[in-house]
């Protein structure tokens, strides 16, 4: 029992560090290489409620599934502490973050959303030159565990996005990142627990969108919506990618 409780605690910590994440990055590129870049991250904490209630029962030596009352208690704690603290942290840290943006980059908009146990933050930046995007850095805080807000798994959202001027064309490339990779590496070998954790991770979504008036010569985008190219992945599609595909999952060549 002691070993199982320890494994459950480790598993819960790994899951809590991410929750069910939806990450979307957007890039609007003008002909003069200025534009806007967006970063949105959402956490859905709903799937964690039953899991945490079950873990609490096991740590208390109880058996069987959690009761409705136990589930509601965990849900209320999440709503009170996690959502409130996430909102308070966002408001208090926004000004400090904005003051540290690189020259040539402005924070056009920033907002915090909450809907039950679904929380998220949206940022929109304006930039004078594409090269400035790689200098945008978010504070990367570790998850504080149940009762505290989830940590930010992505510190530099545009750091590895590259633009190469080829003369008549420009080439934009960037990697596909799995924001849950660190937590997956920490998961216990217990097949039953791994299955439970993987079930909680099924809500993962990673998307990247590029919009530009420039003519597309070639791209690896999954689909096109007008002038917007869209790349979209879930956990299963990310896990099928080879290291090389992960490295240059985002790739488009434009004619100037």
SSE order in H/E notation?
HEEHHEEEEHHEEEEHHE
Number of strands: 11
Radius of gyration: 20 Å
Q: In order across it, which strands form the biggest sheet?
A: 3-4-2-1-7-10-9
Low-confidence stretches: 1-18
Question: Roughly how many Å apart are the termini?
Answer: 64 Å
- Annotation field: number of helices: 7
* Overall pLDDT level: 81
The fraction of residues assigned to DSSP E strands is 25-35%
Instruction: Give me the secondary-structure category.
Output: alpha+beta
Which bin fits the share of residues in helices?
25-40%
Main sheet characteristics: 7 strands, mixed
The coarse overall form would be globular
Structure notes:
This protein is an alpha+beta fold. It is 34% helix and 31% strand. It is built from 7 helices and 11 strands. The strands form 2 sheets. Strands 3-4-2-1-7-10-9 form a 7-stranded mixed beta sheet. A hairpin with a 2-residue loop joins β9 (223-225) and β10 (228-234). The termini are far apart. Residues 1-18 have low confidence and may be disordered.
């Amino acid at each position: 029992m002691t070993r199982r409780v320890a494994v459950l605690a480790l598993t819960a910590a790994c899951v809590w560090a991410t929750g069910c994440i939806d990450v979307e990055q957007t890039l609007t590129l003008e002909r003069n290489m200025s534009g806007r870049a967006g970063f949105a991250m959402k956490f859905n904490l709903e799937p964690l409620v039953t899991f945490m209630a079950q873990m609490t029962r096991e740590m208390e030596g109880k058996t069987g599934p959690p009761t409705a009352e136990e589930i509601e208690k965990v849900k209320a704690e999440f709503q009170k502490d996690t959502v409130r603290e996430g909102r308070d942290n966002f408001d208090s840290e926004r000004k400090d973050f904005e003051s540290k943006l690189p020259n040539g980059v402005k924070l056009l908009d920033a907002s915090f959303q909450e809907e039950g146990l679904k929380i998220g933050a949206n940022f929109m930046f304006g930039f004078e030159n594409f090269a400035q995007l790689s200098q945008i850095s978010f504070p990367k805080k570790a998850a504080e565990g149940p009762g505290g807000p989830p940590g930010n798994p992505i510190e530099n959202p545009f750091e590895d996005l590259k633009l190469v001027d080829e003369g008549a064309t420009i080439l934009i490339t960037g990697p596909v990142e799995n924001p849950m990779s660190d937590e997956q590496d920490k998961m216990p070998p217990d097949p039953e627990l791994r299955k439970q954790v993987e079930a909680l991770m099924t809500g993962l979504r990673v998307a990247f969108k590029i919009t530009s008036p420039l003519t597309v010569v070639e791209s690896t985008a999954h689909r096109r919506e007008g002038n917007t190219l869209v790349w979209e992945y879930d956990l299963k599609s990310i896990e099928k990618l080879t290291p090389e595909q992960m490295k240059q999952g985002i790739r488009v060549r434009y004619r100037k």
